[in-house]
Amino acid sequence: MKKTSINIGIIGFGTVGAGTAKILIGKQRELESKLGFPLALRNIADLDTRRDRGIKLPAGVLINDAKAVINDPAIDIVVELMGGIHPAKEFILQAITNGKHVVTANKALLATEGQEIFRAAGIHRVDIGFEASVAGSIPIIKVVRESLIGNNIQSIYGIINGTSNYILTKMTEENVDFASALKESQSLGYAEADPTFDVEGIDSAHKLTILASLSFGIPFSFKKIYTEGVTKITPLDIQFASEFGYRIKLLAIAKRTGKDIEVRVHPTMLPKDHLIANVNGVFNAVYIEGDATGAQLYYGRGAGEMPTGSAVVSDIADIAQNIVRTLNSEYRTQTGLIQDGTCKIKKMEDVRCCYYLRFSVLDKPGVLSRISGILGGHDISIRSMIQKGRKAEKAVPVVMMTHEARELDMVRALKKIDRLSVVSAKTVCLRVEEGEG
Ligand code: NDP
Ligand code: HSE
Questions:
Q1: Peptide bond into 87 cis (omega under 30)
Q2: Does the beta carbon of 106 sit less than 6 angstroms from any atom of ligand 1?
Q3: 172 within a domain of the structure (yes/no)
Q4: Residue 339, in any domain of the structure
């Protein structure tokens, strides 16, 4: 039987749903000529069918019942763009059971329920497209599972949350306060429905779960990822970082150290001339090292209506081509996941890196020697130091950069230091990556 078009049903007509629809409708003819067959947007389901989304849909396309999309026998690909865990998970599983291929941008869902979803897809021989789930418009999923297939990935350093990067950039370059920068980011459609996911590093950890699993063959390990967000970054630390020659970025890091894989998300100081340190605003970047390719850098918009819509459409087009090519033959599910269990996740306490420390101390004789004594006692050596101000009774900031040390030693040393009577506030601790690039 010759298939004349591939029918698409979208669930969720919000920021990403509208961007996807704009491309599918606005570029219908170009897409058809590139693919050799048409992609037909049959339905979009949303709870609210009255709100203006900036695009006029043909009559009958917009409906308010997601189940009508999932159960429509004419629909080949269900595109889940509603977000959240429930009922998105149940919708996707039902679509898979109904034999439909699925495209989703829902990294929270994949990071936490991905094992079950991919298993179901394998059983029912359908595809799951999730390009839009990591790094917005950057085709990083395709890169990792297709383009770099001949490599053992050694390390990944990603700025993969547009909202946090937007906030840090605004704070660094324009002195905008945290709350105003977050508000702007929300109004631009970058933030998650619950923006704590963005600013607490959870969204980056969701994305890193997916990337690390594809790159290192480890199971989806969201709960094991050490996660720290940007909410505690102050203008003072941004200024000190700059004085030392660094910028602060929220980095998602996955790297091979021996047989272990480090997976962590936290604010990180990077030398100002590092390529990633110069990725600003809503832009994302993924710096990735393969054993064959060496280092590569992928850069692009990490969020927003059209950039994310572009990634969704790329999955739709890939799956549509797969459907057309393999029609009447055995359908092969293309998850790209190989979880052979040869690598395991390194405990955060064993990670080694350099640190930036900002102590709030009383400016009294002997304070520095007590602090450096405790650090030395935990095998932590100081590389450089700045002390600002000298106001007898009031606390002054003392900032140190350390040589490489073990996380557990740092945690133990800071616990002791923060108990000293001359230390007046919890010490700020940021990890530093020197890296290449
Ligand atoms: P939005 O909140 O803008 O859109 C979600 C839409 O889904 C809303 O219109 C919502 O309706 C609708 N919806 C919710 N529940 C249902 C339901 N049961 N049936 C039908 N429609 C429903 O979210 P985004 O477009 O920003 O995000 C969508 C997904 O894409 C999320 O998983 C997000 O993490 C991901 N993503 C977002 C990016 C971005 O830049 N925004 C980038 C990459 C990924 P209502 O508003 O009436 O509740
Ligand atoms: N809230 C996410 C971000 C959307 O800011 O990066 C893109 O995944």
A1: yes
A2: yes
A3: yes
A4: no
The secondary element (H helix, E strand) that includes residue 104 is strand 101-104
Measured in angstroms, how far is the CA atom of residue 209 from the centroid of ligand 2? 15
Residue with the nearest Cα to atom 8 of ligand 1? 14
Q: Tell me: do 206 and 292 sit in the same domain.
A: yes
Mutate to test the pocket of ligand 2, among 133, 134, 163 (most ligand atoms within 8 A of CB): 163
Check residue 333 and give its pLDDT.
Answer: 54
- DSSP category for residue 56: P
For residues 316 and 355, membership in a common domain is answered with no
State whether 294 and 322 are in the same domain. Answer: no
pLDDT at 36: 85
100, part of any domain = yes
State the DSSP string of 292-342: TTEEEEEEEE-SSHHHHHHHHHHHHHHHHHHHHHHTTS-------------
Q: How do residues 381-399 score in pLDDT, each as one tens digit?
A: 999 998 876 655 578 999 9
**Is 207 a residue of the active site?**
yes
Mutate to test the pocket of ligand 1, among 23, 61, 65, 81 (most ligand atoms within 8 A of CB): 81
Residues 260 and 235 in one domain: yes
Mean of the per-residue pLDDT values of the chain? 93
**Of the listed 207, 249, 255, 346, which one is catalytic?**
207
Contact assessment for residue 289 and residue 153, using Cβ atoms and an 8 Å cutoff = yes
Q: What's the structural domain count of the chain?
A: 3
Question: pLDDT tens digit string along 80-133?
Answer: 999 999 999 999 999 999 999 999 999 999 999 999 999 999 999 999 999 999
- CATH number where 36 lies: 3.40.50.720
- Buried/exposed 230-252: b ≥16 CB within 10 Å, e otherwise: beebeeebbebbeebebbbbbbb
Q: Check pLDDT > 80 for residue 322.
A: yes
- Shared-domain flag, residues 156 and 106: no
Whether residue 277 is found in the same domain as residue 145? yes
- Measured from the alpha carbon of residue 16, the closest ligand is 1
Question: What's the DSSP call for residue 201?
Answer: S
Q: Specify the pTM.
A: 0.90
Domain shared by 108 and 251, yes or no: no
First to last CA, the chain: 52
Query: Encoding tokens for residue 336?
Result: 């790209």
Q: CATH code at 362?
A: 3.30.70.260
Structural domain including 233 reads: 141-299
Q: What are 261's strand-pairing partners?
A: 256, 345
Residue whose CA lies nearest to ligand 1 atom number 1: 14
State the Rg of the chain over Cα: 24
Q: Is the domain of 272 the same as that of 356?
A: no
The reply to whether 335 falls in a domain is: no
